[in-house]
Structure formats: C-alpha cells, structure tokens
Amino acid sequence: MPKPTLFRNLTIINFIIVTYFGLLWLVYMLKFDGQAIGVVRELLSIPFLLALLVFLVIGIRHWIKDSPPLFTKVSVVALAICIGITIGSFF
After folding, report:
1. Sign of the C-alpha dihedral, residues 76, 77, 80, 85?
2. Entry pTM
C-alpha cells in the first residue's frame, strides 16, 4: 500500500483541477469576461484538460490497485464527472 501522502497529494491535485473547470463554468455562466481572464483561460485550458485525463487514469489505477481513503475516491468521481461534462460540451 502506498504512503498516505500519495493519496493526499492526489486528492489535492484532483480538487484543484475540478475547481479550475468549475470556475471556468462559473465565469461562463455569469458572462464575466475580462481580458486578463481570457488570457488565463487560453493559457491554462489545454494543460488542465490534459491533467484532467492523466490524473483520472492515475486515480482509477490507484483505486483498483489499492484501497484509497473515501476523500480520494470522491475526488476521482468528481474528476470523472468533470471530464464527462467537459468532453460533453464539445458535442
């Protein structure tokens, strides 16, 4: 079994990614679009989308291989929901 710090770090990173996409959605819904927000959105969207895919795979691998704490499981499920909404918004 991996060290608990691995699960803690995975959980923190997962929630950072989910928070980023949640804030993007909130900015879109509130129609708040400044120049600085547009620049940050353009610079970070593709790297965060790739991180979303990578950390979802890592989270699922750790879920199958080990028994992570509940909070880590919640963060992986939140990533799965986030990727479903994000990929679904393209179609």
Report:
1. negative
2. 0.85
